[in-house]
Amino acid sequence: MTYDVIVIGGGPAGLSGAVALGRALRSVLVIDSGQGRNAPAEGIHNFLTRDGMSPEEFRAAGRAEVERYGGTVIEGEVVSAVPGFEVKLADGTVHRSRRLLVTTGLVDRLPEVPGLAEGWGSTVLHCPYCHGYEVRGRAIGVIGTPGEQMTDEKLRLWGQWSPDVRLLPLAEIAAVEKDGVRMTDGTLVEREFLVVTTRVEARAGFLGSLGLEAVEHPMGIGTYVPATDPTGRTEVPGVWVAGNVADPMAQVITSAAAGLMAGAMINVDLLPPAPDKQ
Fold first, then answer.
1. Mean pLDDT taken over the chain
2. pTM (predicted TM-score)
3. What is the pLDDT of residues 2-38, one digit of tens each?
4. CB 136 within 8 A of CB 144
5. Where do the domains of the chain lie, and which CATH numbers do they carry?
6. Cα separations (Å) of 241 from 34, 166, 217, 229?
7. Rounded distance, CA 21 to CA 9, Å?
8. Residue 205 Cα distances to 88, 175, 211, 215, 219, angstroms
């Protein structure tokens, strides 16, 4: 069959958009790779009435809502999308739709420090609004990366949650160990949590066949797929983007809101043309 909309990405933006479209009586297919950016975290925060819910539980609840309104959710990795729209998965299956909503999110690239990636999402953090309250009063190390413009601001910001915040220049770090950070001079700086700025990369390689590519973000934080208006419309007719793939700074609640907006506008775009007035 040809769906009204295929949603590529089953995170908060994609699921929210799919619910909006399902409630508008549109046929919707959500394709989710299962590689959620916040999967390592214990819980989501700053989402009213959902604070502390695990990402897995949040996605399961979102999938159930999509299916309640007639949508279909499948797991798979999209490898290409061509005008038409034909979406091909890694297993060779092909699905068709009249419109696309891309909500594939981002990949965080951490500095290559031994032991750092193992703590990502638990003891290695990036967002004070996501994790600050949970680590309040604890020993925190802020990793200063070369060329970063906001290191001083990060120190002051994390200092709002803890009086024990210390700057650790990346060039002086040898490895992250169980009890802290081993510096290149051999000393161990005891820290319970580390803060690091990642480089983010949009999950958008499959869009090249549509003539749509990720570009460098104006803030220099990585790549994203820009929208041409606040609804998530892109320069490619029939393709919308929402969530972190279009806004690297978006949190869960704002990604969900962006998905809702995009879904509503896609529904409007699918309306038949108004009859000519004589």
1. 95
2. 0.94
3. 999 999 999 999 999 999 999 999 999 999 998 888 8
4. no
5. 2-107+199-269 (3.50.50.60), 111-195 (3.50.50.60)
6. 18, 38, 15, 10
7. 15
8. 13, 32, 11, 11, 21
